[in-house]
TrEMBL record:
Annotated Pfam families: TraB_PrgY_gumN
Residues annotated as transmembrane: 12-30
Organism name: Niabella drilacis (strain DSM 25811 / CCM 8410 / CCUG 62505 / LMG 26954 / E90)
PANTHER family attached to this UniProt entry: CYTOPLASMIC PROTEIN, CYTOPLASMIC PROTEIN-RELATED
Keyword terms: Membrane, Transmembrane, Transmembrane helix
Name this polypeptide is given: TraB family protein
Amino acid sequence: MGQRQGSRPVYFLKISIALYLFFACLLPGLSLRAQEAKSLLWKISGNHLQAPSYLLGTMHLVCGEDFEISPKLKTVLKKVHTVTFEADIAAMDGTSQLMDLMKPVPGILEKTPPAQRRALDSLLKAYQLTPDVLNYMSPFGVTSVLTLKSFNCSDASEVKMMEKELYNWAQDDSLQIDHLESVDFQIQVIRSMNTIDELLSTLKGMKDAPHFIKDLVQVYKTEDLPRLTSLMSDPSFMSTVQQTRLLKERNDNWTQLLPGKMKKSATLFAVGAGHLGGPNGLIRLLKEKGYAVTPVFD
């Protein structure tokens, strides 16, 4: 399977965006639903669709040794004509806006109240850093570097972006590629949260990140959606405002787009696993629109 090779800075930035969306999509508190079977691949049918489409919950980043395209996903890829991702993956190559996200935010330290600066200094000491690091990169950049380290991969250079691997696979199979959001939109979402408050919130939970990610990967590999939802139920990982902005509002937007895309072409929608379950998840929202949404086990 062929892969396009980009520059290391662009690759790192794509990893960084995936890291942000990883936490946005996999760390929210969501309530369990009986409808959530042990599968991260779901079939969407009915409602006058000529052919079924599919919904895949991804883990945006994973160590190379944990990455796999399952046999059932390979089967589904032979049934669809289009693979649709959250963002326009092709447009991420060489985007100057990605570089800008890593750059320091002008005047951010000067505008930080003394109490916050002391808290920041205390939290960063655990990583042999000081608040001065924000003179060299943005809060988003700091979060990305520390989060990537939390994965504890045996070979950090082999970290996989699941969507990019699926993108390459789909291209090799001559499938159409589509997206739900522009890169500009996702960058604006990240930029709006590129703040000291967000950095402090992330740092407070970072000490537990390696253990959490290890558990999350194992649960993801078993496709236990109810357990995954339960594991993600700690509200300290994401505020109510973040859940609304990053999950609920985006899911509502996507459910307006999915019917037209499914009517046009049998499609595999590959989105973060955190978008699937719960009262505001895509599974429930699609059912409310009259679709039959059923788990794919093999």
